[in-house]
Amino acid sequence: MRRRFGSVRARATLGATLVVAVALLAAGTAVLLSLRSSLTGQAGTQAERSARAVAAQLAVGTPYEDLSSLDDDERPVRIVDAQGRQVAASEDLERIGCAGTDEDAEEDLGPGEIDDETRFGDGSATVDGETADYRFAAVEVRDPEKGPLTVCAGAPLEAEQSAVRTALTALLIGFPLLLAVVAGVTWLVTRRALRPVEGIRREMAAITASADLARRVPEPDTHDEVARLARTTNETLAALETSVERQRRFVADASHELRSPLASLRTQLEVGAAHPELLDVAGAVEDTVRLQRLAADLLLLARLDAGEGPVADARVDLAALAREEAAGRAGVSVAAEAAEVAGSRGQLGRVLANLLDNAQRHARSAVTVTVRRESAREGPWAVVAVADDGDGVPAADRERVFERFVRLDAARSRDEGGAGLGLAIARDVALRHGGTLTVRETAEGGALFELRLPVP
């Protein structure tokens, strides 16, 4: 039972039923009070009409025995004098609970005058041995001969009480039925509405159990929140699948790249151990340096994948950084204007170093570095361009070169070409700094890499 009422469907059904129950209770109470007030008002009008009819006869001096209204058994009438003594009453009237005289009204009335004010009240009367509830109306009149009199007439409330009882019975029978209908409809509607959610839950449970991120949750053919939830879930699964696949490929490629220098270094050490005179110290140092660089690249990529961002408060002068990275490199010229950006000096220096390494690797003789500022609609930008006079990058491969472990020259050895992580690292760092890194062709046909970073 606890689990059932813990479901959204059960809570929605219970909530809707409670809301409707409160609304029906309020509406039913209002209806009963309105019905009772209306019927009581009608009975009061009838009683007042009878009382004023008798008062009108008394005002012209009609004797008590000639009063026509005293013969009406349904509307009992009693007439009392100024001392409260009954002077006339309807036939068979044994008792009547009517209001007494109003002395203030009696003093204001002249002979033959009827008071404009009517006093109402509820009570009971006994006629011919039967007691019933009545609505009474009392009217003051001054008889020309008998003086001030009070006429009290009553109208039965049996019809009002019967109508209220009938309405109450109908409400007591109809309310539970209506609540049952509301609960049933709400249960069915929420069940139908939440059916796609249950399908999404089952599919997500199956994906979790099978670890198959290629599966997708069903998307309903609607345009509601559930459909948007399904689409967002599938987009999340697609991004997660891409991330996991990228991680697997990264681990596999890293293992492959590490295997070659490790095997070479192990071979040299084993040969050196057996034949010290044959130990290639320079080759062992070179392999160790390659391993060190590869480990540093992998560590930086891991930090970038983990979401490590630049220091927002740091200011880096790209012109000075470009000159610093180009110093000591053969064939590299720098033409730079001051351009400060916010970010990590170490990471941005790594980007420039990787771009220069790539340019020198493919240039025939010269590499040119330019730093400039540009204005755009979204604000000023700092642009660092690294151009070489090599063969350039084919248009079909201008995005592929930024993928990890990608080397376009398949014949180039790993010793000369690196692991294919330099441009991937440069692109990731550029994105972390809110910028871009693209490649296009120079006028001479070489490769032109452009790093664009926002100026704070």
Task: Describe this protein's structure.
The chain has 3 domains: 207 residues, no CATH class; 81 residues, Orthogonal Bundle (Helix Hairpins); 140 residues, Heat Shock Protein 90. The protein is 51% helix and 20% strand. The chain is rod-shaped, with a radius of gyration of 51 Å. The two termini are 60 Å apart. It is of the alpha+beta class and 456 residues long. Helix 2 runs antiparallel to helix 4, helix 6 packs parallel to helix 10 and helix 7 packs across helix 8. It has 10 helices and 13 strands. The strands form 3 sheets. Strands 2-1-6-5-4-3 form a 6-stranded antiparallel β-sheet. A 5-stranded mixed β-sheet has the order 8-10-11-13-12. Strands 7-9 form a two-stranded antiparallel sheet. Strand 1 and strand 2 form a beta hairpin.
Count of discrete structural domains:
3
Distance between the termini: 60 Å
Number of strands: 13
Label the structural class.
alpha+beta
**Main beta-sheet annotation:** 6 strands, antiparallel
Shape: rod-shaped
* Estimated radius of gyration: 51 Å
Can you give the mean pLDDT?
A: 82
SS strand fraction:
15-25%
Order of helices and strands: HHEEEHEEEHHHEHEEHEEHHEE
Task: State the helical fraction.
Answer: 40-55%
Enumerate the spans where pLDDT stays under 50 for 5 or more consecutive residues: 410-416
Q: Helical element count?
A: 10
Strand order of the largest sheet: 2-1-6-5-4-3
